[in-house]
Amino acid sequence: MRKPDLMIKDHRVNNNNNKSKLRKGLWSPEEDEKLMRYMLTNGQGCWSDIARNAGLQRCGKSCRLRWINYLRPDLKRGAFSPQEEELIIHLHSILGNRWSQIAARLPGRTDNEIKNFWNSTLKKRFKHNNSTPSPNDSDGSEPRISDHVTGGHVMPMHELDIMNICMETFSSSSTSTMQNYVTGSSQFDPFPMVDHNRYDMTAGAAAGLFNMQPPTQVGGAGEIGFYGQYGILEANNMGLERDLSLPPLESRSVEENNNINARPVDVKSNNNNHFNNGCFNNTDDHQSCFKVENMFGFGNNHAQGESLKMGEWDFEGLMQDLSSFPFLDFQVE
DNA sequence: AAGCGTATCAACCGCCAAGTT
DNA sequence: GAACTTGGCGGTTGATACGCT
What we know:
It comes from Betula platyphylla. Keywords: Activator, DNA-binding, Nucleus, Repeat, Transcription, Transcription regulation. With about 325 residues, the protein is mainly alpha-helical. Among the domains are: about 20-75, Homeodomain-like (Arc Repressor Mutant, subunit A, Orthogonal Bundle); about 75-125, Arc Repressor Mutant, subunit A (Orthogonal Bundle), CATH 1.10.10. The chain has helices spanning about 10-15, 30-40, 45-55, 60-70, 80-95, 100-105, 110-130, 160-170, 175-185, 205-210, 255-260, 285-295, 315-320; strands at about 5, 20-25, 150, 155, 225-230, 230-235, 235, 240. The strands form 4 sheets. Strands 1-2 form a two-stranded antiparallel ribbon. It has a two-stranded antiparallel sheet with strand order 3-4. A two-stranded antiparallel sheet has the order 5-6. Strand 7 (about 235) and strand 8 (about 240) form a beta hairpin. The chain is elongated, with a radius of gyration of 21 Å. The chain starts with a strand and ends in an 11-residue tail after the last helix. The structure holds a DNA duplex (21 and 21 nucleotides).
C-alpha cells in the first residue's frame, strides 16, 4: 500500500492561507479515529471544513473518500456473494463502467470496491474463461487469513478500533441521543444511507451499524434494505415500499452507441461512453460485453448481439430483468 | 528460505459539473 | 459571465499479501 506521505501540491489549498502540509497516502488508525469521531458527532457537511475541524491534515477530498470507501458505517465487508457477482455483471452489461450507479444498487458496497472487483476478478475471469463462471467459483475474493474474522465477518485490522469509537461515542451520549442518531430524529443524520429501521436502539445497534453480523441477504423477511448513496430502496416487513429517490438506470441514445466505433475517443468527454472508457478497450471488447451478457443468459430479452438498440431499452423491462434476482427484496409492479 | 510473479485494494489523479462569489 | 470552490466520478498507481517454484 501507499506509504503515508506529505503533500504540498494541492493548489487549491495553497491558494489560501492554509499552507500547512497535507498528508497523503494511507490513513493511520489515529486519523480514522479523528474522522470517525467528527462524523459521528457532527455529521456530514462541507468536506474541507470537516478535514479542518476534525484536525486532519488531509484535503477534504481525501476525507470524503476515506469515509465513503472505508469508514461509512453501512459498509458491507468481505467477499462478494455469488448473487452480488451476478448483479454486478448484469448491471455492468447495462451501465458499463458507471461504478457509482452500480454501487447505488448494491447495498453496502462502494464504487471503488466494485470497480476493483471487476478489474481484478471478473474481467480476468471472462478473459481466461469463455464459459459461464460459476457463482460458486472460489477466487481471490476469499478473505485473507490475516484479516480479522468475527463470526464469519471479515474485519480489517483496525475496524474493531473504529467500532469501539462508535460505541464509545454513543455510550458517552445518552441512550436517547443515540436513538436520535439512529432514528434520524436529531437535527442531523450522520448515516443518511443507513436504514434506521433496521437497527434497534440498544448498544448492539452500533455493532449492527458496523455489520458485525452480516444482514440476511436472501429471503430475510424483508429485513434488508436496498440502499445506496443516492437513496434507499426499502422493503419493510409490512410490505413492499419503493423509494423512488434511487436514480433510474440510464440508457444511452441510439446515436451515441451507433457512433462509438465511428468517432475518435474523446478522453475528456467520454464519461457517457462506457464502451470506450473501459468495458474493454477496443471494439472487439465492446462486443464482448454483450458476449458476456449472453454467456450468462442475462437480459436475453434485450441483448441480442448487434441487433441491440440500447436506446430502446425500456425502464420497466430493465427493472423486471433486475427483479429476477431473488436476493433483491423489491419487486417491480 | 528466498526469489519472483500475480492479485488485491486503498488511495491518488485529473476531469467535469454544479454551485457560489 | 468569468473565476473560483466543492463534490463526485472513473481511471490508474503502487504497496503489500499471497502463492508458486
